[in-house]
Amino acid sequence: MTRAEIYNRVVGILIKSFELDPADIKPESRLFEDLDLDSIDAVDMFVELHEVTNRRIDPQVARKIRTVEDIVNLVEGEIHGTPPGAAANDANDPPAATTASPATDTTDDKDS
Predict the structure, then answer these.
(1) Residues 92, 84: Cα–Cα separation, whole Å
(2) Which CATH number is 40's domain given?
(3) Cβ contacts of residue 105 below 8 Å, gap of 6+?
(4) In whole angstroms, what is the distance from residue 55 CA to residue 101 CA?
(5) What is the tens place of the pLDDT at every residue in 28-51?
(6) What distance in Å separates the CA atoms of residue 11 and residue 44, rounded to the nearest whole number?
């Protein structure tokens, strides 16, 4: 499952389970402050995520989830077997990966 597919699945769960407006759901949306979820909603969401990951979400990890992006990182880590700490750090990785690609291209340009 790609990161985009995971994101779409998470958004679908949020829309279906909590009747949220899709326009309100963004990666940076805070679950409790922006989307008005409560602790019971969070439990329901993790039950739904269990069906996606086929794994029980560690309650200690679940307590640290604050944004939609955090959920995507968690699910991605569970699916791909990344340790929970590493999945949480993935939120910072895409800009670094984007920066790394042009640097690689620049190196290739120098060799040409």
Answers:
(1) 14
(2) 1.10.1200.10
(3) none
(4) 33
(5) 999 999 999 999 999 999 999 998
(6) 14
How far, in Å, are 42, 79, 85, 99 from residue 92 at the CA level? 24, 19, 12, 12
- Helix residue ranges, H only, 34-92: 39-53, 59-62, 68-80, 84-89
Cα–Cα distance, 36 to 101 (Å, whole number): 38
Sign of CA dihedral 95, 96, 102, 106: positive
Phi first, then psi: what are they for 65, rounded to 5°? -70, 125
How far apart are alpha carbons 63 and 80 in whole angstroms? 21
Indicate the SS3 state at residue 18.
helix
The answer to whether 87 touches 74, Cβ cutoff 8 Å, is yes
Q: What is the pLDDT of residues 62-100, one digit of tens each?
A: 889 999 999 999 999 998 886 554 544 444 444 333 333
Task: Show the domain range for 18.
Answer: 3-111
Could you give the number of structural domains in the chain?
Answer: 1
